[in-house]
What we know:
Layout (H helix, E strand, L loop, with lengths): L8 E2 L10 H11 L4 E10 L2 E9 L14 E8 L7 E5 L10 E2 L7 E3 L6 H4 L5 H16 L19 E5 L13 E9 L4 E9 L4 H6 L3 E6 L3 E2 L10 H10 L4 H11 L7 E2 L6 E13 L2 E14 L1 H7 L3 E3 L5 E4 L12 H5 L4 E7 L3 H8 L9 E5 L3 H13 L3 E5 L23 H10 L14 E2 L7 H7 L5 E4 L5 H7 L6 E7 L5 E6 L8 H14 L18 H4 L8 H18 L6 E7 L6 E6 L4 E6 L2 E6 H14 L5 E9 L4 E7 L7 E3 L2 E3 L5 H11 L5 E8 L10 H15 L6 E5 L3 E6 L2 E6 L1 H4 L5 E5 L4
Parallel strand pairs: 8-10, 8-18, 11-14, 12-14, 19-20, 19-22, 20-21, 22-23, 28-30, 33-34
Antiparallel strand pairs: 1-2, 2-3, 3-4, 4-5, 5-7, 6-7, 9-10, 13-17, 14-15, 15-18, 16-17, 23-24, 24-25, 25-26, 27-28, 29-30, 29-33, 31-32, 34-35, 35-36, 36-37
Amino acid sequence: MTEYISYGLPVSGSGKDNLPKPLLDLASACENYSGFDVCEFRSLSSDCYALIVDVGDGTFDSSNAVGIRRVERLALVFAPKDRFPWEVRALRVDFPVTMHQNHAPPETPRSLCLYLEPWSTVERMWTPQEFLSRVLWWLRGTAEETLHRADQPLEQLFFESRQRFVLPEDHFERLSDPNYRIEFDRVRVEEVNLTTYRARATVAHSGASLQESHCIPLTILLPPITHGRVEEFPVNLDELIQKLSDRGVNILGLLREEIEAFVPEGQGLEMDPAKPHLILLVIGTPLQRDGEPETTAIYGFAMHVHFGQLGEDLFVLSRAPDDNKWYRAINLASGGQAPEPDRLASYAIDPISIKLMPSKDQIREYSGISDSACDFRGVIAGLGALGSSIADIWARECWGDWEYVDHDVVEPHNLPRHVSPAQGVGMPKSQLVSGLISSMFSVFPDDPIPPNAHVRKLTDDTEWLNDFLMDKVLIIDASTTLEVPRDLSVMERPARVATIFMTPSGMASVLLLEDKAGAIRSLSLEAQYYRAILTDEDWGGRHLEGNNGHYWVGAGCRDITVALSHELVSLHAAVLARQIRLLSAREQAQIRIWDHDNSTGAVISHEIRVVNPVHTKVGDWTVWWDSTIEGTLAQLRFKALPNETGGVLVGFVDHKIKTISIVLAMNAPEDSVSSSDGFVRGIAGVEDQVRECRRRTGQVVSYIGEWHSHPEGCSSQPSSYDCRQLNYLINVMARDGAPAILLIVSGDTITISLDQSTTTVELSAFRGKRKRSIDCQTSRA
Length: 781
């Protein structure tokens, strides 16, 4: 004969008139739902009632291994004041302990876990009929063992604890460290009746710290065990010890050792005998399946007892006569007397929620980047609004191991756009960002000066920089300056450079990413980026509007009078952070521009085709151009044949690193004079074109010299007339202290003359993979 738990008190006939309408609606649904027979109504409290039903389901095997019967008696409980008002209790006395059950108090019916979502979500789709279908689904799925995938680890019973404890992610790994101790900071939220205890590292416990601590943690790491059935939680310490003993684990000795470790040898701990402690018992159980380790199950129990009295009952501590101090007991440790079971049974334990801080691998999984290459060393140079936001994003994803370089401090006007709080004003940006990031997931105190923060400019000290970059893979240049990417372009280094910035209006952002091989450097990408601005008639004309000149984003981040919202900083930081992570996995160099449409919120991407650079030494200078420049020169020359043609060159000069970068070779002006034996460049529209170049590029790209072609059968070596033109250019450009460049293109070579030096190189179409430079000195007439 089946024995059932008598749950609540019967509701008499007249009492049914006072039953809540939702419960009566559920009873009505049962009468119209095959498989549900209403037995009676019961009262559980003044405002909590249960509908007792027999539920029959003949769709699963009656001899299932779990022990679910085809007819089960259930209590469908309605408690309108509970956080989740509907509950299902199994009334059969020997109803099995299964997965997907809620933890229930001792001597009460087992509680079936039908929903994992909160009631605020469930109530929007809840109906009596849906609820009854859910009950049948649970019984059938549990009997057939399909509610839980076979390859998932077995789980505990579900329970809802009002106390939650957060431990470091490597808590169990550090238990062997004798100096490792944790204390808890308490966060109480009265509105939701929830208390969270956050662990932090501390020194070995003193009597004062133990007495004042919010919680005393006792951690026990058990030997590996094999997955077994789901069990009910023990209700007292004696039951816990017995349950683990049944699994072949002796917890008593481990618990004694943990308590003893709290008391320094030869010293006593002073504790108020009338004041109980909150003791957190953390049990880590490595689980294995088929002999292989799978995971570590973590169980937590709270005991509100006196720590010293617990130690006495376990014969590991003893209290000094006429004193409130407890000492280590002599000869009564783990091999001594056995504690009294009745005494241990008096220590009630409550299951509580234990969570570990996430590990790097878990954070990457949560962020959806676990398939990315994440373990590399990198540098972020420039921790302003954009750089600090990107650093924050990557830290939250655990993408890369970064060092931070910036010579600036946080100013008051930085706060509207920077990750810094008000307390950070006056701090070096690199140290502030590093400190914020180091505390993001760590519960341990950090060094007062983070070792990965450097208060300096990145490229000021070449010797330091060479050593610093030795083990780095990626350099993020968010400095908003010209010097960092240019200085990095001319030095030998293994790291790849990604230059990022926002335009002054805040409506666009830019990425210049070198190739992995290091063949296409930032200096060439800068020139190709400017050429795209100059030649694009869609976005190029407005791209850098609002600039103050010589800073890519200087007017946006450095000038406090310019309005730039944190909305735009966050938008572009997110786009850049994600795109750098994705594009850095590719071999090729990249130039990307993202335009934000203020009216629609759309972000439009512009991908600029990157071409191979060419550079050659001319006297004391290095001249840079690329295959697009060569293609333009060859095409313009071919169209003009048999005549010569030419025009002006625009680009930029860097006097520190002695480089000249050719950005664009312009067409011949309309008033030019062209023949088969000479070319005279006109002036129509040239001044306006050069002025527009300066405007579009923030005064960076300007006139740097002249170019012209030689006809078929002639080399690219300068003629006597060319030498006179070069001398004239030298005199004109000397007024501004700038070098003068003359470029001559023939059918297969380019000759570049600069001051008193001339260098000839083959065009890429003829050179292929072979590059030959011919240096020659040409005397000036």
